[in-house]
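Schema walkthrough. Field components (list of strings):
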Amino acid sequence: MLAREGSLGDMIDAGARILEVACGPCIGMGQAPPSGAISVRTFNRNFTGRSGTLDAKVYLVSPQVAVAAALTGRLVHPSVLGAPPVVENPESFLIDDSMIIPPSIHPEEMTVRMGPNIKPIPEVEPMPDILNLKVLLKVNDNITTDDILPGGAKVLPLRSNLPAISEFVFASLAPGFAEKAKTEAGVAIVGGENYGQGSSREHAALAPRYLGVYAVLAKSFARLHRANLINFGVLPLLIGDEYYEKMTEGDDIQIRNLHMALTEKGKVVVSVKNKHIEYEDTLDFSEQERMIILAGGRLNFCRQKLAETDH
Amino acid sequence: MAYRDHIVGQILCEHLIDGELIPGTEIGIQIDQTLTQDATGTLVYLEFMSLGVDQVQTKCSVSYIDHNMLQTGFENADDHLFLQSAAARYGVHFSRPGNGICHQVHLERFGVPGQTLLGSDSHTPSAGGLGVLAMGAGGMDVSLAMASIPFYMTVPKVMLVRLIGKLPPWVGAKDVILNLLKRLTVKGGVGKIIEYGGPAIKDLSIPDRATITNMGAELGAWSSLFPSDEVTRQFLDAQKRGTDWVPIHAREEAQYDDLIEIDLSQLEPLVACPPSPDAVRSVQELSGIRVNQVVIGSCTNSSYRDLKLVSELLRGKKYTLTLAL
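Field assembly_structure (string):
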C-alpha cells in the first residue's frame, strides 16, 4: 500500500536503505552498527550486544524521534522538523493475502519435507524403575543453560537437528562430553545450586537427554530448566551438601525404586556403587510432574492422554 | 465474582477448562489461536508431529517466517520448506517469507477480540491491541495447545492502566509505553496482565494500541490488552474483517490489583537509553547527542501509519546517516 502510494519511493529518494520485511536488525540479523556507535531505533529491546556490535549503544524511540535524528544527526525534539504532518489511518486497507497459504483441503496428501538438517524428535522410553548411571560431569553453582548448550551463530542453525546440536552439550565446560556420553548406557550430572539458570531454551534439556542423560542430581534447580528437564524425560533429583561433596566424576550410581517413589508409595534409593554409599529419599514433585516423569516426558504423557480420550 | 468483571477475567472465564479463577492458583485454559515464528517454530512442529495428532485442533494456527531470513546456506531455506510443508499437512496457515513480521500480520489479518492466542515468541501480546488475550510461551506449550491440550498458567494479578488526556503533537504511542516502563521498570509487570482503559483510548488506533501491548513484554507482564470498542470495529472493517468484531469492556464494578493513571497531555517524546528498555529519559534531556545510525521498523513500530508518517517527514529530504527501514 505504501509502495502504491509512492511513500516507499519517498523513503528511497531520501536515502533510506530498505530491508526485507522481517525482524532483521531487531534480532541482530544485519545492520550491526559500527564499533562504539550510537544507534537510534524504533525497536523494543536495547540490551548490550543485541544489535550485533558489543560496544554500540542503542536508544529506543518513536518513529517521529527517529526521523528527527536521521535528518539532524542528533537526538532532538522532533518539533525542529516544523509542523507535524497529519497522517490518518486509512478507511480501508489494501488487502492482499496471496502471501498467506491457507491449510490444504487435502492434508492427507501432503508430505512433510525434512531436509538433511531437520530430524524428528526421537522416542523416549518411559522412566525405568532402576537407573544405572555414570557420573560424567560434576559442576559448581549457577550453571547456565548457555553452559549446558551454547547459543550463537554456530549452534542456532542446528536447532532442528538434535543429533548435530547435541555435539555441543557442555562443549565449553567439558570438551568431549558428547562423545563420552554416547559410550555409556546412561549418564548422570551432579550440579550445585541454581542449576540451569538463564534462557529457558528447551534444547538445554532435550539435547542432554538425547545423549543419555537420565538424571541431574543438584542442590537446587532453576525453575524453568527444572520444568524443561521434566518435560523431556530427565529426572531432576535434589541432593544435599553431604552427598554433593562425596560424589565425583566417574562414579557409578544406581537410582532404584523409582516407580514406587513416583507413585508416592515409597522412597527412592540412591547408591554410589563404587563408594559403598547408599541413602533413601522422598521425591518432591507435584502430581502432574510425577505422571510426566513416569511417562518419560510431557510429549509421551500427552500422547497417552490423547490416546485415552480417543477411545 | 469480582475477578470476572475485568476483561482478563471475562476472557479467562470463557476459556476455563481446569481449576478456579482464584489469583495465585493454577488453571488450564483453552487456546483458540496459535502463532509460531521460524526460529522457535521448527521445534514446535517437530514436537507436534511426535504427538501423533492428525490435524491442529485450534480455531486458527499460523506459521510465520520472519526471523532467520538470511539464506547463507541450505539450512534456513530447508527450515522454511519444512515449516511450509508441515503447515499444509497439519492444517496451519503459512505466512511466506517476505509477507511480514508475525505480530503485525497477525494483528491485521487474524486476531479476533476476546479469543486466546498462544505464540512461541515473547512479543505475542501485540495482538492485545485488538482485545485478544495473547501470551508468549515455550515451544512445547504451543505444540500442545495445537493438539487442544489446555495451557496451564497461574491466575494472574490484573493491573489497570487508565489513560486520560490527549497526546500532544510529536508524541506517540511509543512514548506512552516508554513512560510506563520508566514508572514500573522491566520487573513491574511480572506475574501480571495489564489492562488498558480510560477516556483517552478512543484516540488510540489499533496499531498504536499494539505498540503499547507489544512492549508490555518488556515490563515482564504475561500479557497486555485493550478493550474491543468502536476503534477496534473500524480497524477490522478497514481490514475487511468486520464480522470478527465483538465488543469487550470491563464492567463498571471491576476491581484491579493495581491502578496507574497516565495523563497523555503531560507526555513528551521519550528515549530508552542503553542497555535497558526502562532506562527512560526525555529527548530534551539528551538533546544534542550525535547519532551514527537510525533504524526504523520492527514488530513495535511498523504499522502503515508509522511508516507513512516517516515517509511524509522524509519526502524531498536527504541525509548522510545510515538509515535502514
